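Here is the promised in-class demo. Please do not try to memorize the tokens; focus on the logic of going from shape to residues.
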């Protein structure tokens, strides 16, 4: 018996697919209907404690006791209030400086990422 002859396989070169440019994604603004916010951005809400109505705020500017602030975020949250009790590490303070993480009692709900303005 003779050995069957094996034909060499044809080598097929596969061309890499052209990468299509990704379409530009239009990012929606975080706060939809809010324009012309007067006041200075002083921080962002980093956490909300719903059982005691307290927000934790990471400050990007100084804040003092009795300052008027405005908390803005989402599509329905926009309220003003005076800074009442302000705490750092469970100790009440009158002034907080840039970079501090403070706790502040609020009259309404706030969520992470909401902006805090000094009015």
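The designed amino acids, position by position:
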């Amino acid at each position: 018996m003779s050995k069957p002859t094996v034909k060499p396989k044809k080598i097929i070169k596969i061309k890499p697919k052209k990468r299509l440019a990704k379409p530009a994604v239009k990012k929606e603004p975080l706060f939809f209907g809010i324009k012309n916010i007067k006041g200075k951005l002083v921080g962002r809400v980093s956490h909300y404690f719903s059982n005691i109505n307290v927000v934790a705020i990471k400050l990007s500017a100084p804040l003092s006791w009795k300052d008027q602030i405005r908390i803005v975020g989402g599509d329905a949250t926009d309220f003003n209030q005076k800074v009442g009790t302000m705490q750092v590490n469970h100790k009440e303070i009158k002034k907080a400086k840039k970079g501090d993480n403070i706790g502040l009692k609020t009259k309404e709900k706030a969520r992470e990422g909401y902006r805090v303005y000094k009015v």
